[in-house]
Amino acid sequence: YTAAGALLNHRAVCEGYSEACMLLLNLCHINSKIVYGSSDTTNHAWNLVELDNKWYHLDVTFDDPLVLNNNQRIETLSYNYFNVPDTILEQDHQWDRQKYPQASSMEQNYFYKHNLIANDYNEFKSIVLSEIQKGKTEIQCYVTNYDVTKYDLSFVLEHCKRVNYSTPLNKSGCIKLNLLQ
Q1: What gap in Å lies between CA 26 and CA 18, rounded to an integer?
Q2: Which residues, in sequence order, are CB contacts of 109 under 8 Å at separation 6+?
Q3: How far apart, in whole angstroms, are the C-alpha atoms of residue 80 and residue 168?
């Protein structure tokens, strides 16, 4: 439940992640706050961060998902909740909006800054192929209109032997690909 738990003991729940994140951001002279709310039906905490006079949500807990493969933890990071506006976070987080500043910009969002947002399948395919050409084997792309029947990932197999992937639960979200040789 504390920054020390996250930073020194390498064990923390969302509040510890948020405390550690706020401590590190404040040491870098970046204004931040901890938001107390919920996700699904569980109490949850995350950060609001102010960059260039605009506020963004930053959920470092959800961007450090626990992934198990054959009972072994696989280190993986996500950028789904890295500097997102209210409209994205409200898909699976709830909070008392009157207690916190509004977050409405995408300017400092990870996917926006790296041109990794696709509005349709062709844009998604183009982004993935461009990332493959750059030599990337772990690719994340935010899609705004995901549809399991329209997003065929088989084209990736032309560039690797196998691919592990995750797709959004909603119509918008991150598709994450791990290309395996």
Answers
A1: 12
A2: 56, 82, 83, 84, 85
A3: 10
- The β-bridge partners of 67 are 74
Q: Which residues on adjacent β-strands are paired with residue 48?
A: 33, 57
Chain position carrying tokens 């977050």: 103
d(CA 159, CA 180): 9
Q: What are the CA-CA distances from residue 42 to residues 38, 123, 153, 169 (Å)?
A: 5, 35, 33, 18
pLDDT in tens, 96-142: 999 999 999 999 999 999 999 999 999 999 999 999 999 999 999 99
Backbone angles phi, psi at 19, to 5 degrees: -65, -45
At residue 144, φ and ψ (nearest 5 deg) are -95, -10
Report angle CA 125, 128, 133 to the nearest 5 degrees: 125
